Amino acid sequence: MTGSVKVRVRVLPGGRVEELELARGSRVADIVARLGLAVSGVVVLREGSPVPEDEVVEEGEYTVLLAASGG
Amino acid sequence: MLRRCTICGERAVARAAPGRRYLCAKHYAEHFERRVARTVEKYKLLRGVERLLVAVSGGKDSVALLHALHRLYGDRVELVGLTIDLGIEGYSSPQVEAAKQNFEALGVEYRVVRLSKEYGFTIDEASRRRKLVRRPTCSVCGIVKRYIMNSVALEVSADAVATGHNLDDLSLFTLMSIAQGRVDDLVKLAPRTERAGRLVSRIRPLALVSGKETLTYVVVLGAPFHHENCPHAPSDGLRPKLSAMLEALEDSVPEFRRMMYTNIVSNLLPRITRPAEVETQTCMVCGMPASGKTCSFCRIRLRLVESGKNRVATSSLRG
Ligand SMILES: [Zn+2]
Ligand SMILES: [Zn+2]
């Protein structure tokens, strides 16, 4: 297991976009940590559907929805 | 490697709780609704409620509230929807639109109250002229929403008003009330407050689910919701800081907020003797409960609307 995966992450609301490079085998929770956020405060979407945070990260796009918004 | 639902093997969307089973969209929705049902039973939220006003802003929490109540109790309780157009530019319209789409999709009867049309001012105006109003905008907004919810509840003869306050909101308000010494305010954070005169009972069926859970629920349902920050919400200060700290704490101590809130509700609230009803007077303008001669809503409205009339008068004199 060597190398890395590249992901493009969009954070909503706000629309901030981050290009991240993570070690292969990283978990979705690692994306959240790299953004400086708490797992309890977000829902991570892959192709419009939520994903469990212990799922392994795949190359491509993710959307991070902030739970403390838009009550 | 994708995670699979522990129950049916479909693609998982979340875990029931940290370290617990994986759930697919369908089983997540059922799990969420069960949690809401347990809250309703635990605190007897629907006791004596035949007709319920459901306040829906169009954000994730109130949309989740409407769907969960409709699925769980739609056949037993008459639901009436309410959405308030607060007149916040770029924010209120898409919110109201999302709320309406949900009412219509579920076939729930509803009302839209436009603050500008019914009462002659908007939250944007209250913000622009906050020196005149003498209150922070979020406080004005809270007073406006509570006042309109209560008036509509009386108008449609609802037995209670349901709001979408979730565990994040309630645990945050709990800590703020304690930190700021407003211990009496804690009783307002109970899952249910009883009717007092013309103040209709209020219930908070999402009290034990987190914002993350309501968000996951509305996404898996595919229900339309408006996910933006209110332009008037402060981005700095105690509240957002405490909110971020509570989320971080929840990551290291799962279920902390639920534990704190349920313990406060069952052990601390019964010891707070509700201060002799503060709102014992009747507003001389509108007849609603008030703490002085005029209720806080009418005080705000009169400041904004009356001074508006003066401005028109002055400009027409000049013209
Ligand atoms: Zn399943
Ligand atoms: Zn009044």
Quick tags:
heterodimer, A: mainly beta, Ubiquitin-like (UB roll), 5-stranded mixed β-sheet, 10% helix, globular, B: 6-stranded mixed β-sheet, two-stranded antiparallel sheet, disordered C terminus, binds zinc ion
Radius of gyration of chain B: 21 Å
How far is the N terminus from the C terminus of chain A? Answer: 41 Å
Number of domains of chain B: 1
CATH superfamily of chain B: HUPs
Number of domains of chain A: 1
Largest sheet: spatial strand order of chain A: 2-1-5-3-4
The CATH class label of chain B is Alpha Beta
Mean pLDDT of chain A: 94
Distance between the termini of chain B: 74 Å
What CATH architecture of chain B do you see?
A: 3-Layer(aba) Sandwich
CATH T-level fold name of chain A: Ubiquitin-like (UB roll)
Please identify the structural class of chain A as seen in this structure.
mainly beta
Describe the model:
The complex is a heterodimer of chains A (71) and B (319). In chain A, a hairpin with a 3-residue loop joins strand 1 and strand 2. The termini of chain A are far apart. Helices cover 10% and strands 44% of the residues of chain A. In chain A, strands 2-1-5-3-4 form a 5-stranded mixed β-sheet, with helices on one face. Chain A has a single domain, classed as Phosphatidylinositol 3-kinase Catalytic Subunit, Chain A, domain 1 (Ubiquitin-like (UB roll), Roll). Chain A is globular, with a radius of gyration of 11 Å. By secondary structure, chain A is mainly β. The model of chain A has no long low-confidence stretch (mean pLDDT 94). Chain A is built from 1 helix and 5 strands; from the N terminus they run ββαβββ. Chain B is of the alpha/beta class and 319 residues long. Chain B has one domain: 3-Layer(aba) Sandwich (Rossmann fold), CATH 3.40.50.620. Chain B has 12 helices and 10 strands. In chain B, the strands form 3 sheets. Chain B has a 6-stranded mixed β-sheet, sandwiched between helices. A two-stranded antiparallel ribbon of chain B has the order 1-2. A two-stranded antiparallel sheet of chain B has the order 9-10. In chain B, helix 1 crosses helix 2, helix 2 packs parallel to helix 3 and helix 8 crosses helix 11. The chains are: A mainly beta (71), B alpha/beta (319). At the A-B interface, strand 3 and strand 4 of A face strand 1, helix 2, helix 9 and helix 10 of B. Bound molecules: zinc ion (2 copies).
